[in-house]
Fold:
Amino acid sequence: MSKKIFIFANESDSSKYTERQLKKKLDKTGYTVIPEYSEGADLMVCIGGDGTFLEAMHRFNFPSMPIIGINTGHLGMFQEIAPSMLDDFIFNYSQEKYALQKLSTVSMKVKTAEGVKEYLGLNEVLIKANATYSVHLNISIGGNFIERFSGDGVLIATPAGSTAYNYSLGGSIVDPRLEVLQVTPIAPMNTTAYRSFTSSILLPSDLSLQIVPDMHDRERAIKIVYDGYSVQYDDVEEIEVGFSDVSVNLMRFENYDFWRKVKSKFL
Ligand code: NAP
Ligand code: MN
Structure:
């Protein structure tokens, strides 16, 4: 039976054009391009930038099949090939000349009186004030109280997400072969009134973070953000953040190297 391939593309002209070209080439090679997403697909192709890639991961609930990204003119850290490389891609795929890069997600469990709701981030999750007030967050690591954070918020990034918002905040770039979570403060206050860590901290994958928003805040509403999607809460009891078992597998070809990619996109 021929392999089933699902293509997800954003609405840009170049993405739609690339999608048509790819479909034609895959049909000719004998692959079956399926019109609707299915968990039974053998491969998912994602055409666009990192934003499109993240959208696909959330829309299809972090698929387990291999995924290949085609970058149509954005930053494209997740995206492996350019639209000019469709033939090389099809050849390498049919010859099984590829490796799979496993990218883990970070989980955020938000507990309210109504129950617990879980959010996953491939890049990051973050907690911040809903308005322009500062937030005060009581942070424990592995059950030990560490600090009462005061500032705009905290961001917890995966290694894959370390080059995104985390990097803009002064966080470190982390090689995705490392299983760590990076906790980065967003505008921490450091005065005689408030004291918080000012640098990022790194946690091993088996430690989790408990966050209790301060009850005495005049504005208790906080915002939970995961990969750019946000939800507002005004009654959070506790938040638990940790490594999640959910991961995705990106197809990478012979010349992929994380640090070369970072250099080409950042320096
Ligand atoms: P966006 O606001 O349109 O994108 C922000 C930029 O981040 C885009 O250039 C995007 O790449 C890039 N990006 C996404 N994931 C990345 C990664 N893992 N490594 C390096 N760069 C990455 O929103 P979006 O495209 O939907 O992406 C959502 C992400 O934006 C969030 O997860 C967050 O990390 C990031 N963000 C950054 C800031 C900041 O740096 N101040 C603020 C808010 C959000 P493409 O151009 O390829 O889409
Ligand atoms: Mn974007």
Summary: The helical segments are 13-29, 50-59, 86-94, 165-168, 258-266. The longest helix spans residues 13-29. The two ends are 45 Å apart (CA to CA).
